[in-house]
Design a protein that fits this description.
The structure is a homodimer.
Chain A: H1 54-61, H2 65-72, H3 80-93, H4 99-105, E1 113-118, H5 124-139, E2 143-148, H6 153-165, E3 170-173, H7 184-188, E4 193-196, E5 206-210, H8 212-225, E6 231-234, H9 241-256, E7 264-266, H10 272-282, E8 293-296, H11 299-312, E9 319-323, E10 337-340, H12 343-358, E11 367-370, E12 373-375
Parallel strand pairs in A: 1-2, 1-3, 3-4, 4-5, 5-11, 6-7, 6-8, 8-9, 9-10
Antiparallel strand pairs in A: 10-12
Helix pairs in contact in A: 1-2, 1-3, 5-12, 8-9, 10-11
The structure holds a DNA duplex.
Amino acid sequence: MSPSEMGEVPASHGSSGPLGSSGASASLGAAGCSASAGSAASAGAGHHVARATMKDVAALSGVSLKTVSRVVNREAGVSPEVRERVERAVARLDYSHNVHASNLRRSSGRTGTVGALLQDISNSFSASLLRSLEDVARDQRTAVLASSLDEEPEREIALVRGLVARRVDGLVLMPATARQEYLLPELRAGLPTVFVDRLPRGVDADSVTVDNLAGSRHAVRHLVSHGHRRIVALGDLRTIQTAELRLQGYREEMQAAGLGDEILERADLRTPEAAEAAVRQLFRTGTGPRPTAIFAGRNDLAVGAVRALRALGLVHRVALVGFDDFPLADLLDPGLTVMRQNVGQIGSEVGRLLFARIDGDAAPPRRVVIEPTLIPRGSGEIPPHE
Amino acid sequence: MSPSEMGEVPASHGSSGPLGSSGASASLGAAGCSASAGSAASAGAGHHVARATMKDVAALSGVSLKTVSRVVNREAGVSPEVRERVERAVARLDYSHNVHASNLRRSSGRTGTVGALLQDISNSFSASLLRSLEDVARDQRTAVLASSLDEEPEREIALVRGLVARRVDGLVLMPATARQEYLLPELRAGLPTVFVDRLPRGVDADSVTVDNLAGSRHAVRHLVSHGHRRIVALGDLRTIQTAELRLQGYREEMQAAGLGDEILERADLRTPEAAEAAVRQLFRTGTGPRPTAIFAGRNDLAVGAVRALRALGLVHRVALVGFDDFPLADLLDPGLTVMRQNVGQIGSEVGRLLFARIDGDAAPPRRVVIEPTLIPRGSGEIPPHE
DNA sequence: ACCTGACATGACAACGTTGTCACACGACAG
DNA sequence: CTGTCGTGTGACAACGTTGTCATGTCAGGT
């Protein structure tokens, strides 16, 4: 990681005497002394002094605008004395480069910013994804604008518009919309875009997803192999692609195991509380044969299931496998068996794809699919109890 | 939440016939038809068509640049026919407003972006904080640039420089540096800045922090009140303000309880693994009288402690109180007793302060201190065992 | 002395937008 | 018919920067 950002200049000097002998007529009032090491210096909470521009630096150091530009951008072909003079003025005026003006004029047109629209930045999946994307971006000297969509399609559309208006260099999208035709003009205009966790619909673009179908079949097969027949599936909103796929995997595997008659789904569960309520209702005593195992299609649905089983005293009697790993799942009692998606891998794959596109890769869209792995921790290995 | 972003225009129309009768000479090649609802349309992965500008829209609709600007900004004083004509051209050309050029020229100088430099976006504390900040920001039609500092001072300085160069409207900082004099020029220039979780040093600025001293004293008092005397404290890097304060609170409370001789600290623990190792070493059998309780100064140190106690079979024999709540702490066995910081409240308080400053509030810096609350869940209420 | 080339520097236009001001037009009062 | 006003529209400069090209200076070769 390279610590210096673009277009900046060394720190203050010991002697801050008058600048070079050139007769530049600079009427700037900004003081030049640096703060002493004493108690907290006040920020002078009053009128805001306008920021110094290259013009100010040029006037103070007695050179032309263009020369200041050269110094600030570390271009070659400036004599050491002039460079020194300009850098002094930069430090004295606290000049800070204006990247927006710079990018406007520059030919490359890069803004050094990418946007990431995720489901909810505060949940561990989105947060970890964002973090590994950030790490890739930092290496490319790029900042990340992050927002949560909360499964609201209109918000997605409004935010994409905002990001395009900001001329981001690229876009990472975990879509909340069912179809993304609205993105066509941007894709046509060459906006590098990578879908994550959910495939694009109605448009063609790069994507990094998990094999939800195979993963959920694997999870269900695991339960079946431990002797379970009455397995209930908990799922999120069916309109969410991944949620529906995981339920589909559950059904397919049940069919394949000859358990088609036992299929029992509770879908459209939005919150841990909803999952908890559903499980409580399912395992209420006296309602005939109860399920002996649960497949939870999302991490916080698994958490809700654990809460319910805990309350019912069934944590060690009902098997449970979740989709999505999360911190501390191993510390529960019993440890929670999950299908883990390697979030770090997903995030860095997204970053690699995105920056390859930004760097001009024009190959046809790629679909990266990552296989989730089963992490047995105890809860998924409980044998059936009637 | 208002769904529409600034400066945009209605969607496409049914009939896309030729534009108004004006004889504008527009030589733009962008096709106008919208995608059909069939299978995924390709993004035409080839040469990138340059984005249409207001000039293009003006040419196509046969009006002046300024009139397009008026329409796009929804200014009054444009005849309905002209407005309609311009909007048609905007839709036809997929025109997207360039906020950078706009802000450059505009007097207000706002960029509609704030920066948030936090410890680590993937940890639950930073992530939740970011999320609640984002919610406030969205109401203000502002985007958030987020980065992780990982306690690296140079990264903080480089990223702040980058954010200033981007002319963010405000800055939220969980500093990794020991002192922040480097921020003085920005503060003097009126950059709204709110420190979070840690107080500013060497500069004066708004802050939202938790009362770490009182909180850790509370935690230790809780253990003492349950009969513990040999209480060990686990702490993060002493150079981190909050870590040192929590250790200090531990020492103060131990002194106050007449347990000065029992003070036992393990500081500078950076990771859960380090905490786990420290606890394992402390509770190794045969090393004389062992502590009967643990105070963990940060959430993942508590997690490490739980791992160690679990491995040693001591989870129900050694008391444990953590600082910082986290998801699932209630589902452990026993539930983890913690001092909870209300992260949502911290985040929205930070947002309120920040946007008040952005809106021109010039009052002296405010220091908001939030009291953490004790959440007893079992682990902190275990009586001493020899 | 003259020409050549390398080097340092600056003048100017341009990026895409908006603030300011001026103009053209029709309506209306005198 | 003239003068005044209100309304819609456009010309132009400006925001802060960089790409292009021209100019000035000086060293070295003939």
